[in-house]
Design a protein that fits this description.
This protein is of the alpha+beta class and 153 residues long. 21% of the residues lie in helices and 32% in strands.
């Protein structure tokens, strides 16, 4: 999706856990591992964007793990609280505010959507997240480990 604003966008990502591993994918543009995710579109909330992006990028149906606040009013809807929120620079003139969710999948069978590739999609164990050959960014590694810890207790 095109950017909503030239200076800042909202994004939503999901750290998907199955068994003892978490799913990350090599980002085409940045050539580093990230969880499935992307821009929030104007007609969706953060958790909806997270689920849509996962389906488009890796073809998985996931269950988000977390709490949705109680409904306060019938003309409002509550949004699931993400595990983390961060703000990071994409380039000199653009930033993202990312809503980071944890989720589970019943399968590791990845079937990317149209235009997406299975190349660079990998399930990482706790130990593999620390392996220097993968060069996983500290924020991504820490969130992935937090997801494994929270879900595989």
């Amino acid at each position: 999706m095109p950017h909503i604003h030239e200076k800042i966008d909202y994004a939503a990502d999901v750290y998907i856990v199955n068994g003892d591993a978490v799913l990350l994918r090599m980002h085409d543009k940045y050539h580093t591992y990230f969880p499935p995710g992307g821009h929030v579109e104007l007609d969706e909330d953060f958790s909806e964007a997270a689920l849509r992006e996962v389906k488009e990028e890796v073809g998985l149906d996931v269950t988000l793990i977390g709490e949705t606040p109680a409904v306060i009013s019938s003309d409002e809807r509550e949004v699931m609280v993400p595990r983390f929120i961060n703000r990071h620079r994409i380039n000199e003139s653009h930033e993202h505010i990312s809503f980071e969710y944890f989720g589970t999948s019943d399968t590791r069978d990845v079937v990317p959507g149209e235009g997406e590739s299975t190349e660079g999609i990998r399930w990482f164990t706790w130990e593999e997240l620390d392996d220097p050959q993968y060069d996983i960014q500290p924020r991504v590694r820490d969130y992935a480990k937090a997801a494994l810890k929270a879900i595989t207790k």
